[in-house]
Amino acid sequence: MTGKRRSEVKTALTLRQLRAFLLTAENGSASTAARALGVTQPAVSQQLQELEKLLRVRLMERVGIRMLPTLAGRALIDPIRRALSAIDQIEPTIASFREGDSRLVRLGTGATACIHFLPGPLARTQAQMPNLQILVVTGNTDEIVAAVEDGSIDVALVTGEVSRANPSIHMEPVFEEELVGILPKKLEYQLPKMLRPQDLVRVPLILFEPAGRTRGIINAWFKAEGIRPIPAMELGSIEAIKTLVGAGLGVSLIPSLAASSGQKTIVCRRLVRPVHRHLSLVLRTDKVLDAGLRALLAEIRSAAQSLQPPVLDQSPLIREADAER
């Protein structure tokens, strides 16, 4: 069969023809097939004739009072069964999406938000929609926003501003948090209760890696006082930074969300000149908000609202420091 002929056959085949053939072959009777399909026997016979004409081969033959498949017809039974079974799955598969019961939401975010903010919203969304799969990926802001742009993730919760020159991206600020200083217990009485950039350059600095937006905010805080920070260590993990500070290896600046789960080996200090970072939701402007995505966005917004205004007040380390002043 030529390529052109195969194309013609694929285009002309109908579900009625395939169902009429399969039911007739399985039951040995065109009248039984007609009853199952809710049509007349002549209608089934016409579908069989059209299929045979299209394929240019005899598919059914009469043996006594029964209609039986020919050798060619028997060869078609299994492929047609598989084709019709696959087609029968189309409606139930798509129905869940039409009804808004989405199956997957892909969320991109930074490590700090993933650890210290998102567990609650994720758990509540999952409780509402047990069949929803939420895939979370972490990275820096630029990587995550690029993934939103190319459609490989559905929504992002990221730090900092996203270029408003990009018309394909919608950014929604959801909350801001203050950065705080953290220091090991052994330096608790050697540094002031309110920290300045000048105080921190006297001790080893452990900072976020340069590629992150939070590091840029920290650098700007130092630069405003004419200071260029020279870190002893640069790390991508907020928990690693806290652990190393707790071990007495230096001091750092971290988001107050991360300070809310304090360690007994570190002390928090507010900054004389407060500095904040903003967290924003990022979506494509043409993104279809199905039920799963809407539920997750609602939980993120609700959780963010509960943090306003003071994330800091929820930190046991900050409460202890404030009580001492």
UniProtKB/TrEMBL annotation:
A Gene Ontology cellular-component term: cytosol
Keyword flag Nucleotide-binding? no
Question: Can the keyword DNA-binding be found in this entry's annotation?
Answer: yes
Keyword annotations for this protein, in alphabetical order, are: DNA-binding, Transcription, Transcription regulation
One Pfam family named in its UniProt record: HTH_1
Q: Which residues form the HTH lysR-type domain?
A: 13-70
GO MF terms here are: DNA binding; DNA-binding transcription factor activity
Spell out the family assignment given in the record's similarity comment: Belongs to the LysR transcriptional regulatory family.
Q: What is this protein called?
A: DNA-binding transcriptional regulator, LysR family
Task: Tell me what organism the protein belongs to.
Answer: Enhydrobacter aerosaccus
